[in-house]
Each structure stands twice: as structure tokens, then as C-alpha cells.
Amino acid sequence: MSSAVEAVSAAGIDHEVIRHGPVSSVAEAAAAQQVEVRDLVKALVVRRGDDDYLFVLVPGDRSISWPKLRALLGVSRLSMPDAATAKEATGYERGTITPFGSRRPWPVIADETTRGRTISLGAGERGVGLRVGADAAVKALAGTFADVTELS
User: Fold this and answer.
1) Mean confidence (pLDDT) of the chain
2) Alpha-carbon gap, residue 116 to 73, rounded angstroms
3) Is 31 helix (H, G, I), strand (E, B) or coil?
4) How many CB atoms neighbour CB 147 within 10 A?
5) Measuring CA to CA, which residue among 101, 103, 119 is closest to residue 111?
6) In this predicted structure, what is the pLDDT of residue 2?
7) Which DSSP symbol is given to 148?
8) Angle, CA of 16, 103 and 115, to the nearest 5°
9) Do residues 58 and 99 touch, judged by C-beta distance below 8 A?
10) What is the pLDDT at residue 148?
């Protein structure tokens, strides 16, 4: 069991672990997990500064709106770390990243469009997804909902 699954279980969140074969895109992952692309949520690592990151939960059919996210955070610069830095910050490889069981409990911002939905997140390992209620997950992660994306 991955540390992500252990963390979701420890938080007492109703969840389902979905195991599937290799995938190479959001669309393939959504098909493998039998969910709509918008319900496959990417946990993106965003850097605010040196050793200062946050998770942004982005539906599969959307992208981060950098102006909206910068305005929300009150900063003028944000960036996406490279894969090695993201792994060091979270303990997870790109494509498996989730706030659950992350090496450090970085802040979480979930896009407003996920509110009230059942979503699938990465589970910390390839070919595994975590289906959870977005509201319960964001609450357990002490996160917030905000309008931070745009259609891809």
C-alpha cells in the first residue's frame, strides 16, 4: 500500500483505490479509471520561492490560470519545478503526485470546479488512482477551493 493510500485511510476519508495499466496521458488515465477527463484531477506542484511549494488540484480538462493564481496568492512570480525538484518536494514522481502522504504537507488549492464532485487523484505510484470526494479530501488536507484554472 502506498503512503498516499495510507494517508487517505488514516484521514478517515471514504475512498476507492483504482488499479490500471500504464497510461501516457490524462485522457488515457481517465479512460482506464472509467471517469470523465474533468474528474481526473492533476495535483500540480507550484513553487512560490525557495523551499516554498503548494499543490494546485486541476481538473484534467483545465489548466492553471497563472494570473488568477498569482492574484489569489498575492505574488508576482510562480513557477513549476522540474521533475526532480517536484519529487524531492513531495516524494512522488510526476504523474503520481498527490498531496496525500507527501513528504511535506504543502498548502492545497483545489479548483472551484471540483467542489461537490467525486474526483480521481494520483496515488503515489504508477497505474494507481484514488477516487475521493473532493470536499472531504480538501477538508482533510486543510485546503481551500478557488477559481484558479481555465479550460485547456
Assistant:
1) 96
2) 23
3) helix
4) 12
5) 119
6) 77
7) -
8) 45
9) no
10) 98
Of 62, 39, 10, the residue nearest 129 (C-alpha): 39
Please name the residue that has the C-alpha cell 471540483. Answer: 114
Residue that is written with C-alpha cell 485522457 in the block: 27
For every residue of 50-96, DSSP letters joined together read TTEEEEEEEETTEEE-HHHHHHHHT-S--BPPPHHHHHHHHSS-TTT
DSSP state of 13: -
User: pTM for the full model?
Assistant: 0.96
* Measured CA distances, 89 to 14, 49, 81, 100, 123 (Å): 26, 12, 9, 13, 16
Q: Which three cell numbers stand for residue 6?
A: 495510507
Given a contact cutoff of 8 angstroms between Cβ atoms, the answer to whether 67 and 36 are in contact is no
At residue 40, the 3 state secondary structure works out as strand
What is the average pLDDT across 78-102? Answer: 96
Question: Residue with C-alpha cell 472509467?
Answer: 34
